[in-house]
Amino acid sequence: MLQYFAKQQKVYPKRVWGKYRKLKWVAMIVTLGIYYLVPFIRWDRGPNAPDQAVLIDLNGPRAYWFWIEIWPQEVYILTGILILAAIGLFFVTSMFGRVWCGYLCPQTVWTDLFVWVERIVQGDRNARKKLQEGPWTFTKIRKIALTHFIWLVIAWATAGSFVLYFNDAPTLVRSFFEFDVSPTVLWFIIGLTASTYLMAGFAREQVCTYMCPYARFQSAMFDKDTLIIGYDQKRGEPRGKHKKGTSWDDRGDCIDCTLCVQVCPTGIDIRDGLQMECIACGLCVDACNGVMDQVERPRGLIRYDTANHMQAEVKGGEERFRFIRPRTIYYSAIIAIVGSIMLYALIFRSPLELHVLHDRNPVFVQLSSGEIRNGYTIKILNKTHQFQTYDLTLDGLDNAQINVRAAGDVSASDLSVPADSVGSYHIFVSADVPPAEPRKFNFVLRSRDGDMEDEYKAKFITRRD
């Protein structure tokens, strides 16, 4: 029972080189490059809009992604993005296992970067273990202090880059060096710096094992045709040491060097079978292939493979990889449907929206002339980047008049809204109609040039029920 309460053993991943390690380096460079550089990309949207290509403007409030502009009421677009991201992750997992975790997950990318710094300053696996377990000397203090200093610089750059997505990047960078940063931004940077430093520097594989929910339910998306990392027991067992020149007839190809364990960033032994902690990074494959080259045995003792293919090999048969199967078809169909809906919404989204709210108290007023008057608050969303003037008319309510309550002389044919803004007006609609059931009619809003139009269905109330 005591083993369940044992202290967490620190993992010291050993350096390895091979195809999958190279792929991880490429993934790290590309993803970090995108993360750190995208806020500085400019995108011309005209004189009245921000020119940052990717920006979440909380003061606007709206989000910009190159040519796409998302307003708060268009939250369905954000919902669609989240659905696509989730289903896309499920699809990739069902096909290739946890490759997201091994190559693209932010926790993995920054942990790899921190381990690389640690290795450069302190040495490889054995040197780091010896340094950590040894007495405190000047050399140990110097190396550990330098490691943590570089970690903090990376964490600070990471936090600062994240904040740039919510502010104009060049302006905020200049303000930071001029010591003119708002307390809110500063506290966000401090908090994100601390979390990055702790997660990538100390928590590391524990985040994947204990904190990430994906590790707990990802097995539900696996089947026997999912590409996973596996150990070929038929070929590898019985394992044991091997002397050069001796026969392999009475032993397996695994020489029990444990190199696959030493290079694993989560510290597991893949020879014990697929485990929850495995992030499918492929480093154990690189390590084992290197050993097989040295002992002149075929590569692939540890490899990416499917359970069906491995079982077929054990039985002496063949099993081809099946990437097209029911669950991948279902995921593809959902992605296609949601993607099509979002594409339609983005292509045909209107640059003008009209919203109307009927006054609640009083719901109507009868004037001395006998006319009935209803009050409404209208909101006009001008999603263009130019100043616009609109004409408001009524459809379905005969002999009605519109009076606009606003400072100055404003008529229903002269409702102006600044670029990329929301205009709000309070209006009265008067009509000489007898008391009856609420009359349905439409507010019709047109731009002065006639290029944009929107309607809103409303009710004209003439009596109390």
Binned strand content: 15-25%
- Note the run of SSEs as H and E: HEEEHHHHHHHHHEHHHEHHEEEEEEEEE
Query: What is the chains' assembly state?
Result: single chain
What would you call the shape?
Answer: elongated
**Rg of Cα set:** 32 Å
Major sheet characteristics: 5 strands, antiparallel
| Uncertain regions spanning at least 5 consecutive residues | none
Q: What is the total number of structural domains?
A: 3
**Structural class based on helices, strands and sheet pairing:** alpha+beta
Number of helical elements = 15
Distance between the termini: 74 Å
Classify the helix fraction into a percent range.
40-55%
The average pLDDT is: 90
Number of strands: 14
What's the gist of this structure?
With 465 residues, the protein is of the alpha+beta class.
What this model shows, in words?
The protein has 465 residues and is of the alpha+beta class. It has 3 domains: 7-220, no CATH class; 226-314, no CATH class; 352-460, Sandwich (Immunoglobulin-like), CATH 2.60.40.10. The chain contains 15 helices and 14 strands. It has helices at 19-37, 75-96, 99-104, 106-122, 125-133, 138-164, 169-177, 183-203, 205-211, 214-217, 233-236, 259-262, 283-294, 307-314, 326-347; strands at 54-57, 62-65, 68-70, 228-231, 302-305, 352-358, 365-366, 372-382, 388-395, 400-405, 415-417, 421-431, 439-447, 453-460. The strands form 4 sheets. Strands 6, 7, 8, 10 and 12 form a 5-stranded antiparallel sheet that branches. The protein has a 4-stranded antiparallel sheet with strand order 11-9-13-14, with no helix packed on it. A hairpin with a 4-residue loop joins strand 1 (54-57) and strand 2. Helix 2 (75-96) packs antiparallel against helix 15, helix 4 packs across helix 8 (183-203) and helix 6 packs across helix 8. It is elongated. The mean pLDDT is 90.
